[in-house]
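Quick one:
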Amino acid sequence: MNSHTVSASARFYHWVIALIMVGLLGVGITMAQFEIWPLYPIHKALGVLALFVIIPRVVMRLKQGMPLPVEQTPNWQHKVAKYAHWLLLASTLTRDYGVNS
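Output:
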């Protein structure tokens, strides 16, 4: 392990976004699977909340950069992890946040 630690704010954003995304997934699957369409406003509100939490997270990540890799990590794994992190950040921003409705 290296001496670089992830900031408390980065951990906070990470877990808040993770919980919101799990909530979105749960509400969305339940709504679609059981055709409980009154859940749609909750699903949409969670999506908007996610957007407002994700934007500061992305700005913070752009300012701070990615965490340093673990010292024993092979170079190829570091590259894959770096691209995966950017892909996850981009995918959270490019979701359909109810703009079409």
